[in-house]
Structure formats: structure tokens, C-alpha cells
Specification:
elongated, 2 domains, single chain, mainly alpha
Length: about 120
């Protein structure tokens, strides 16, 4: 549903749908009886249900066991970047962290807030 209809939706995964709609969608998904027509007009409900599903997994998709391997592979890939790309990426990271404390004042731009950065 999301890939077909909502990838250009502003604030997707950030703007919350009504909790009751997300709850109803989760119930339908758990029962295997989703009326796509009912939920296709509310991509934020679909995104909210997906976020709930991922949050409620007993283990992250990248698994706890492979956590250090993922970071080792990422570090190895970073070393393969051309120096200009690596430096640009580092500047973006530094810039983001310098703004992180100010995220509330830029919440309209980011469609988020400092609490959302934690989750």
C-alpha cells in the first residue's frame, strides 16, 4: 500500500494517524482481514501500523547477534568512500548534531521534534 500510493506523502512516518485507526488496522492485519479500500486513503495509518510492528518485534531486523558485524561492515564501507564524500558525510553528521538541540525550533522543516529523534 505505502509503496504504491504514499511515498510522496508529506511527513509519512512522522505525522501520526488517529490511534483508533491504527489500532483497527493492526487488528485487521492480525486477523488477516484487511479492507484495503478502508485504509488506502490514510497512508499515515498504514505507516503507523508498520512502525508499531517494527517496534514490537522481539528482536531488531538487523538482530542483536549481528549488531557488531553490521557496524564493522559499515566502518569498512566508510573507509572505501572517496575522501571528499567521507568528509562531506562527516560534515553533515556534525551539522545534524549541532542542530539536534535546536530541533524544536525547526520542527516544521523536519516534520519532527526532539522526542521523535529518540525513537
Amino acid at each position: 500500500m505505502l509503496l504504491r500510493t504514499a511515498m510522496r506523502e508529506e511527513g509519512l512516518f512522522r505525522l501520526a494517524a488517529a490511534a483508533s485507526v491504527v489500532k483497527r488496522l493492526k487488528t485487521c492485519l492480525n486477523q488477516g482481514a484487511v479492507d484495503h479500500g478502508e485504509f488506502s486513503m490514510d497512508p499515515h495509518a498504514v505507516a503507523g501500523a508498520l512502525k508499531c510492528y517494527l517496534r514490537e518485534l522481539p528482536e531488531p531486523l538487523m538482530t542483536f547477534e549481528l549488531y557488531s558485524d553490521w557496524f564493522a561492515a559499515f566502518r569498512e564501507l566508510l573507509q572505501k568512500l572517496p575522501p571528499e564524500n567521507y568528509n562531506n558525510l562527516r560534515c553533515q553528521q556534525i551539522d545534524f548534531h549541532s542542530r539536534e538541540g535546536n530541533i524544536s525550533s525547526n520542527s516544521e522543516l523536519f516534520l519532527t521534534n526532539d522526542q521523535n529523534l529518540i525513537t
